[in-house]
Design a protein that fits this description.
The protein folds into two domains: 279 residues; 79 residues, Thrombin, subunit H (Beta Barrel), CATH 2.40.10. Helix content is 16%, strand content 31%. The strands form seven sheets. The chain has a seven-stranded mixed sheet, with helices on one face.
Length: 402
């Protein structure tokens, strides 16, 4: 493994093995294969400039319009009755005239008044069949029935949610002395070598921030003229997360660190593909890739999909949708990510950069009089999530069970 060196390099730091000997010309750079696949795919998809380092969007989604009963209700005929519900904003959609169905028994009810807080006023058992209602039974709105000559029903509206993220300033510099730049070495021109390595490290920094960055700014909490901003990444911004390392994790009935093929399929069907596109990209660690490969051997032949920008994907098709899997090279290097899967729905993800501040090479950054050549790559960018529920994270998937 190569040794990182901070700061300026001079010719005295290279020993005689770098002088002309019987070596292969130039050098080979050992690096992860395509170490910034998220950025590569974003460059092919959503990318948009912003004229402010703080950018915002509004999220909205159609309500599910379902309610949960608080306390059992006895069987009755086609009569008026008040039902107590759990406190929930979804109750507001049950207005006078709404058709309400008990998902457990199939009982059909008709709302006789607008729901107020937790009180649902209905005519029970439309159609004549008598049913009881169990505690915690789930009810859902199944349409509307109006009487002849009735007035317009009560309108129900809902507000979108505003979310915010920031552009973060990424800077990666490289430098060589004037002497070093004029010295002939078998490994090639040091300025060119430094330029290539610095760009790859710069893109790697952006990639890692887009996964692990935490949103924060100090311009508003302290009186500073020059703000310091951090962009929020996927791992810290997404709320649709499943920790397989914890028994009975939300939406995944898993044992500690173990996820069966059936449990994984259920998570795809019930949660991961519940919203958004029916084709999503999953960046996975090495252990998760192996689990999926074993599942694939049991049921289907994984299909390689030719990509672009060095990003090749493997398609795992299910009834819920297609999961396009990519073994993320950097997940091999980051502790704990070998058991993780980050599922991204690209139509709802965007790369945002400040106008005139997308990735650029700035040369001649050395101080006047310094016998060095200093350059840097500079990018001011951030990650924008248009929606949250369309993406997902699975963590702690350390083992599989057939």
């Amino acid at each position: 493994m190569s040794t990182p060196i901070q700061g300026l390099r001079g010719s005295g730091q290279f020993d005689t093995t770098f002088r002309p000997r019987n070596y292969r010309e130039l050098f080979t750079l050992l690096e992860p294969n395509g170490n910034s696949p998220l950025n590569a795919l974003l460059s092919m998809g959503q990318s948009e400039s912003t004229n402010d380092p703080a950018f915002r969007n509004f999220r909205d989604e159609l309500p599910e319009r379902r309610m949960k009963v608080n306390g059992a209700v006895a069987s009755t005929g086609n009569t008026a009755e008040d039902i107590t519900l759990d406190a929930d904003n979804e109750n507001k959609f049950a207005v006078k005239g709404a058709i309400i169905v008990n998902s457990e028994t199939g009982e059909v009810m008709h709302a006789t008044a607008d729901t107020t807080a937790t009180t649902l006023s209905v005519t029970r058992n439309v159609g004549g069949t008598a049913f009881a209602i169990a505690d915690d039974a789930e009810l859902f709105i199944a349409g509307f029935a109006a009487q002849e000559g009735a007035d317009t029903p009560t309108a129900v509206s809902f507000d979108a949610i505003m979310v915010e993220n920031f552009c973060q300033i990424f800077r990666t510099s490289f430098s060589v002395t004037g002497t070093m730049n004029s010295t002939y070495l078998r490994t090639g021109d040091k300025q060119d070598e430094a330029r290539v390595k610095a760009l790859k490290m710069h893109m790697s920094d952006i990639e890692r921030a887009m996964f692990f960055g935490k949103k924060q700014t100090n311009d508003g909490s302290s009186n500073v003229a020059q703000a310091l901003r951090f962009t929020g990444g996927l791992m810290t911004s997404l709320t649709n997360k499943f920790d397989v390392g914890t028994a009975s994790s939300s939406a995944i009935n898993a044992a500690d660190g173990i996820l069966t093929e059936e449990e994984f399929d259920l998570a795809l069907t019930e949660t991961i593909f519940k919203f958004g596109s029916n084709s999503k990209i999953a960046f996975v660690g090495a252990k998760v890739a192996n689990h999926l490969q074993q599942f694939g051997k049991d049921r289907w032949q994984p299909t390689q999909v030719e990509g672009a920008y060095g990003v090749n994907l493997t398609r795992y098709s299910t009834f819920a949708g297609d999961l396009m899997v990519h073994l993320h090279p950097q997940f091999r290097q980051i502790p704990g990510m070998d058991t993780a899967m980050v599922i991204v729905d690209f139509p709802y993800l965007s790369y945002r950069y400040l106008e005139g501040r997308d990735t650029q090479l700035l040369e001649g950054r050395q101080n006047p009089g310094a016998d060095t050549e200093v350059s840097e790559y500079l990018t001011e960018c951030g990650l924008e999530l248009m929606q949250d529920s369309v993406h997902a994270v699975i963590e702690g998937w350390s083992a599989r069970k057939a």
